[in-house]
Every structure is written in C-alpha cells, then in structure tokens.
C-alpha cells in the first residue's frame, strides 16, 4: 500500500495550453488545396451559333477571348483555351473547350469522333504521367474533361439524331449535363413539354447523363430538386440592362427583357449553382474515379497487365513485362516472316510477269522481222522490174533518136522534079516520123516501122 502511494506521489501532471486533436485535418487539407489551386475543364458541345461562348462568359462573369466560328468547316475542330481565375484567395485554372464546326457538315456521321479522340488524348496524357518513374501529378496541369455541357437547340420538338448518337458515345467518358440553349425563344408551356420529351428520349435510348449526387446530406435536398429540372433551360447575356432602379444582365427585346438571373425567366441560376458552387468537386471526383479509371483499366488490360492470374495468385510486374515483351517479339517475328514471304511471292509474280512480257516481245520481234524480210523481197523484185523497164526505155530512146537523125538527113537531099512538091512531101514525111517517134517514146511496146 505504501508502495502504491509512493508511485502516485511520483506521477507528473501536465497542463494543456490548448486544444489537441485530429479534427484540424480538414483545415490542413483546405489550406493545402487552396495553396495548390484547382483546375476545372468544361467541354461545350453544340452547333455553331447556339450560344456556347455567351453562356461561358455569363457563367463566370467575364469575357473570354474567342473567335467567331464559321459555318463552312469541313470537319469538327476542338479549340481549348485556358484562363487563370481568382475569387477571394482561391485560384482556379479554367479550361474551356469549344467544338468548332459541330453539326455544320452535310455528312454528320463522324462528327463525334474528334470529340472522343480529344477526351481519350487527355486521359492518355494523365496515364503517361502516372506511369513515369518520376511523377509530378500534383504540379502537372490536369486537362481531363470534368463536365460536358451539351447544348440542345430549341428548334424542333425533340432531340436530333446527331444529339442522341453523340451523347451515347460520350456518356461513358465524360459527365454530360444537357442544357437547352436560347430558351427565351420558347414559351413556358412548350419548354416544359420539350424538357419532358428530351428526358424521355434519353432514357429510352440508354443515354447516361450526370445526376447530381444525393449521398451527402448537406446537398441531398437541393441536388434531388435540381435533378428534376434537367435539362436546364438557359439564356446567356453579357449586356447590362436597366430594369427598375438596378442594372441586371438581360436580353432586351422590343416587347420587354429576359433577365438571365431571374429564375422565372430561365434556369441559368440553377445551372451556375449546381455546376460551380455545389458540385464542382464531385464532377472532378467522378471524372477521376469513374471515367478515367474505366479508360485506365481498359488501357492496362490491352497492355497485358492484370490483377491476378487464373490461380488467384499475385503477379510480378517484371514477369508480366517479360511475358508481354516475349509475346511482342514473337508477334513481330511472325509479322516479319509474313512480310518476307509476301515479298518473295511478289518478286516471283513480278519475275513471271516479266518473263511473259519478254516472251511476247520476242514473238512480236520475230513477227516484225518476217514482215520486214517479205517487204524487202518485194521491194527488190520491184526494183529489178523497174531497172528492166528503164533499160528497155533507154534502148527505145536511142533507136528513136537514130531514126530522127536519119529522117533529118534524108529530108535535106534536093529533088529535081517539083520544088514546091518536094518541100511539102518532105515536111509531111518529117512530121510523120516525128509523130511516130513520139508515139514510140510514150508507148514502149509500140512497133517502130523500119525506114
């Protein structure tokens, strides 16, 4: 008993100067997060001229630089722009991605492909950063799309086929929030019917849009209420219009004004509250935990990685790498052998074709050679005939010249009987001889009379 009392007397007591506990961890996380800053990326999908840029300017109460898009693009281009925003002491790196030329083409079957490729490219960049030996995930700029505002044109009575196909392709890769753009062009009753029709078509076609979370009791009530207002009917404007005694953002018409922040006029305030104030962090978490994880899992499975083998044993990363490398080398050798065999077959086919062409050319050459010899023989025969004809002609010509000489000599002898008669007879004889000689010269076969 004395020993126990002595121990109690030796105990020391420490007075606490303040509160000690781990309930300060949230404050530490908040301070650290504020110091690092946040990033938020919005994808705006909609036809040109539907009001995407105006709504973004209205949503963040600033004027973003954005060139007016043309309606004559031959394909869809994605144009990202990053801005540094600050509210109080919180820094936000905001990236807005516009789909330039969406819905402007005649053939719209592949309009969604550039959007899917852009989203997958951002996932791929983040995955590459994760797989690096020296990673910097906290300092790198996260460009993954956290929210997709899909702008639905108010014209028509339902969704277009392009809208359904695009949203169906995007729902597994991004958080889709459908909005009806330029809602001031539709009256209230038609707008309510359009909302019901759109939600009905989305459900019937299996399109999964983003639902505001109701697990957190702090926001469960407001999120449940806002889920019933989807899709939001919004109006955007950066113009200040004087209504009563104050300036408000509104669109001014001859018959009145549409106030952007008046919930009786549109759902802009609901969209801003849900997107920026209440559920921005949940959108970021859903992107990482659901969409990115799905992409990461599929990509790693394509690379040959798996959690467990068929025997439910743990796997070695080195063994998986070696097996995948061996499989890749085997496949590479197989493809190389196939290409080599294909090359050999192509060479053999080319050789056979060349031989066939050579044979055809040889036969053609022999045929032309025979034709040349026959033509040469014919020309030689004609040449001989022509030479014989020329020799005969020359003989006749000589004989004709001889006769003409004799006729001239005979005509010069004097006749004693009658001078005039002699001259006339001599002239007639000379003319007759000349005509005969001329006929002989023109007709080689004609008979030349003697004397």
UniProtKB/TrEMBL annotation:
| The species this protein was found in | Takifugu rubripes
In which domain of life is the source organism classified? Eukaryota
Q: Which residues form the Septin-type G domain?
A: 36-302
User: Which residues lie in coiled coils?
Assistant: 318-403
Q: Which UniProt keywords apply?
A: Coiled coil, GTP-binding, Nucleotide-binding
**An MF annotation (GO) of this entry:** GTP binding
Protein name per Swiss-Prot or TrEMBL: Septin
What Pfam families does the record point to? Answer: Septin
Phylogenetic lineage: Eukaryota, Metazoa, Chordata, Craniata, Vertebrata
Give the UniProt family note: Belongs to the TRAFAC class TrmE-Era-EngA-EngB-Septin-like GTPase superfamily. Septin GTPase family.
| Protein's UniProt keywords contain Kinase | no
């Amino acid at each position: 008993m004395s020993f126990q009392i002595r121990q109690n007397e030796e105990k020391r007591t420490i007075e606490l100067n303040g509160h000690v506990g781990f309930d300060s961890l949230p404050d530490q996380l908040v301070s650290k997060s504020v110091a690092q800053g946040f990033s938020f990326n919005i994808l705006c999908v909609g036809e040109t001229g539907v009001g995407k840029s105006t709504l973004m300017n209205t949503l963040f109460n600033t004027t973003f630089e954005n060139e007016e898009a043309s309606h004559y693009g031959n394909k869809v281009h994605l144009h990202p722009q990053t801005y540094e925003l600050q509210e109080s002491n919180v820094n936000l790196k905001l990236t807005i991605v516009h789909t330039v030329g969406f819905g402007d083409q005649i053939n719209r079957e592949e309009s969604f492909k550039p959007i899917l490729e852009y989203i997958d490219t951002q996932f791929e960049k983040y995955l590459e950063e994760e797989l690096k030996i020296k990673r910097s995930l906290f300092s790198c700029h996260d460009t993954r799309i956290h929210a997709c505002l899909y702008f639905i044109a108010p014209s028509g009575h339902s969704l277009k086929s392009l809208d359904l196909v695009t949203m169906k392709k995007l729902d597994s890769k991004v958080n889709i929030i459908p909005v009806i753009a330029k809602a001031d062009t539709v009256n209230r009753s038609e707008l309510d019917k359009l909302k019901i029709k759109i939600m009905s078509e989305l459900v019937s076609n299996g399109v999964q849009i983003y639902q505001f979370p109701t697990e957190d009791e702090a926001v469960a009530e407001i999120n449940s209420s806002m889920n019933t207002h989807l899709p939001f009917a919004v109006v955007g404007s950066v113009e200040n219009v004087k209504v009563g005694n104050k300036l408000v953002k509104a669109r001014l018409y001859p018959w009145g004004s549409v106030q952007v922040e008046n919930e009786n006029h549109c759902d802009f305030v609901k969209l801003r509250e849900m997107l920026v104030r209440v559920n921005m962090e949940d959108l970021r978490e859903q992107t990482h935990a659901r969409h990115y994880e799905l992409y990461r899992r599929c990509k790693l499975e394509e690379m040959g990685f798996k959690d467990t083998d068929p025997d439910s044993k743990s796997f070695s990363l080195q063994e998986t790498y070696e097996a995948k490398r061996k499989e890749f080398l085997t496949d590479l050798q197989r493809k190389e052998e196939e290409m080599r065999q294909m090359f050999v077959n192509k060479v053999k086919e080319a050789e056979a074709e060349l031989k066939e062409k050579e044979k055809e050319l040889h036969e053609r050459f022999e045929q032309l050679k025979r034709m040349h010899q026959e033509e040469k023989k014919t020309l030689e025969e004609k040449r001989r005939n022509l030479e014989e004809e020329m020799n005969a002609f020359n003989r006749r010509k000589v004989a004709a010249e001889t006769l003409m000489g004799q006729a001239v000599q005979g005509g010069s002898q004097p006749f004693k009987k009658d001078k005039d008669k002699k001259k006339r007879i001599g002239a007639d004889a000379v003319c007759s001889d000349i005509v005969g000689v001329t006929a002989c010269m023109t007709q080689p076969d004609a008979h030349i009379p003697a004397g």
